[in-house]
Amino acid sequence: MASMTNLDNFKKELRKYPFVVLVGNIVTEEALPSYHSSINGTEIFHDKAGVDDTPWSIWARGWSAEENRHGDLLNKYLYLSGRVDMKQVETTIQYLIAAGMVKRETAIIHGNTASLAKQHGDANLAQICGIIAANEKRHESAYTKMAGKFFELDPNGMFIALAYMMREENRDAFSFNV
After folding, report:
1. Rounded-to-integer distance, Cα 13 and Cα 5, Å
2. How confident is the prediction for the chain on average, in pLDDT?
3. Is there a domain that residue 177 lies in?
């Protein structure tokens, strides 16, 4: 019975701020694991089957799983509110996922949502988004360190890889068939 009371209180609190912010957060999380597939399909990483035991492959699978959990948690939170047409949210995500966002923006968005939730008395959502924001900051730090190491080891190769990824990302951003 206490769980139902908590859910009712949760739904009342969720009414106090815009759902569009939370939907935007879900879009950022849902897009990120798709990058894992794109990166693993390159000649540099060669983990096309997703079972390689290289440090990169192991790390990338863990990262992708964590990002998936972020999206799932936010998705379930919205679903339990009963205030959002989740079919519309999922359809919107399919169309917006190509736009993507980088880690810094993702961390800022989740941090801002945590602050907004806290201001409106929703401690659960504030904690969820705060934890996700902290994870995104860790990811940004890891990417920065990896890129720095790659530039140190092979500056020419890193510039070529970076140019390739930017070209592919821009070309592929609108090629999803949804």
Report:
1. 12
2. 73
3. no
